[in-house]
Description:
This protein is α/β, with parallel strands linked by helices. It is 42% helix and 17% strand.
Amino acid sequence: MSKPRFSSTIAVTGGAGFIGSNLLTYLVDHHHDRQFVNLDTLTYAGNLANLKSIEDRPNYRFVKLDIADSGAVEAAFDRFQFDGIIHLAAETHVDRSILGPHPFIRTNVAGTLTLLEAVRQSGRRIRFHHVSTDEVFGSLGPTGLFREDSPYRPSSPYAASKASADHLVRAYHQTFGLDCVITNCSNNFGPYQFPEKLVPLTIRNAVAGETIPVYGDGLQVRDWLYVADHCRALDLVFREGVTGSTYLIGADNEVTNREIIQRVCRELDRRLGGGPREKLMRTVADRPGHDRRYAMDSAKIRQELGWAPSVSFDDAIAATVDWYLTHADWLDACVTGEYRKYYELNYSNRQQAL
């Protein structure tokens, strides 16, 4: 049997994580002429079971790889001759960055530098799409929106590490002429999100009848973006974004953390009865340096590339709650650590050395 031919080969770093696995599933389903290689070191948030639906597709490959390991990255570049990189691999949980910032610097800063150097040393034109966050801009006041030219004021070690990576990407575009684009997204939610994050944590605790923690007064405002809409935006920017440009991706869903919890609880009450589960909310000490409000002006991506959210906020919340209720085994495996066995059972024997 002859090997399939592809028009290009794209690396997706961090493809076993929340956004990465949703993105890879979308890309593999929508671009059959392209090969997608998932480069992921499988930290605690990396779960190959997220990709079960595509793991045997001819245009999908997985390589266990640490992006901060320059030798492994160079070997991957030599083997696959990448035409593009969508770079999502990152340590992302703010609380963890406060407890221990070093892994964030290694992965988010040194790892990004390693990838950029590999692109530069290849001598080939490789599109480098760096996926970043609104947190690099710090906290907004009660009014106003972040824009592409907003100053950087990161408040946490996580945000500082992502800001550093953004600056490196821009520097490599300006200094070495690399074909780079950057996207900064707002808070994502949806299927396959590790249950340390607010929405899946709320669902799990509310179903179990356990306390739902609320930082401070719970009135921190975020712009909530459904992951499926984010994936469409990433695909569009990677293919059509202007080199050297930055695009902000938000959904104009400014909602407080407290209201998110209440909405999720009401959805669960409708499906499961009982409640009201929002009574499980308990105030805990606020996080150090907790940003009060984020909000994005996504006019540029809407006007230049024609992107807009396709799922209403209410429908996205309902779909997310339904997904976690019908994937209780997945959620339990994350909590117990059983999900880690998926790699050993399904990949370790067939993992090819670079």
